[in-house]
Every structure is written in C-alpha cells, then in structure tokens.
Amino acid sequence: MDDLPPGAILPAPGPVEINAGLPVTRVRVTNDGDVPVHLTAHFHVFEANPRLRFDRRKAFGMRPDVPSGGAIRIEPGQTVEVPLVPIGGRRVVRGFHGLVDGPLDQVDLEALLEHMVAKGFLHEPEEPAE
C-alpha cells in the first residue's frame, strides 16, 4: 500500500449494492405528456412532472432506487414500474416544484395532494395489493 499514489482508489472485491437495507416501494408511473421525462436519482418523485400519472401518496418522501447520477426515462404514453426508496438524512426537501419545501414529517399530505390536483398534477391512487 505504501507504493500507491495519493488519492488512489482501492475498490472492494465483488459487486456494490446501492441503497442496501432500504425498503423498496414500487409505483406504476404513466407519462401522459408529450415529451420524455427523466426521474433522477435524488428527485422527490412525489413532486415530479405534473403529466406523470401515479399514486403520489405512495411516492411521498421517496426517490428513485437508482445509482447516483442515474435516472429512469419514461417516454410519452409509456407506463413503467419505478422502484423507490426513502429520502434519507434529515428528510428535508427543497426546490423541485416548491410544494414541500421543508421537513417531510411536517406536511399535511392530504391537503397537499388536494392542492396539487387543483393545480393540474395527475394523481392516481393504486389499489392495495391483496
């Protein structure tokens, strides 16, 4: 190890599992818009493009289960099952569509969903699995 240059990277053997141990929630997302949409690795999916039709309640506080820098692309008219994991850290969301803009645990989710639907966001609750 003494002969390695400064900043050398020593990868561990075997594959790296991203988001290990995090619970995964899957939602069906349909792009009802006319352009492709990308859901990037750290995006609060709940606030995604208004023309995406999915159960936003299930996606609250969640981000795509993809590697950092990755994304899930959804073409117009396409339906994709998207794996989601909880947003970590302090669970504070800023930006996006400005709908949450603060701690996730201080949101009145039902009032926020009503507000989003009134503003034209598509929301389609999924039936519970049996």
TrEMBL record:
GO cellular component, one term: urease complex
MF GO annotations: urease activity
UniProt catalytic activity: urea + 2 H2O + H(+) = hydrogencarbonate + 2 NH4(+)
A Pfam family: Urease_beta
Gene3D superfamilies named in the record: Urease, beta subunit (2.10.150.10)
Domain of life, per lineage: Bacteria
Alphabetical list of InterPro entries matching this protein: Urease_beta-like, Urease_betasu_sf, Urease_subunit
One GO term (biological process): urea catabolic process
Root EC class: hydrolase
Enzyme Commission number(s): 3.5.1.5
Keywords assigned by UniProt, alphabetized: Hydrolase
Protein name: Urease subunit beta
Organism of origin: Thermorudis peleae
Organism lineage: Bacteria, Pseudomonadati, Thermomicrobiota, Thermomicrobia, Thermomicrobia incertae sedis
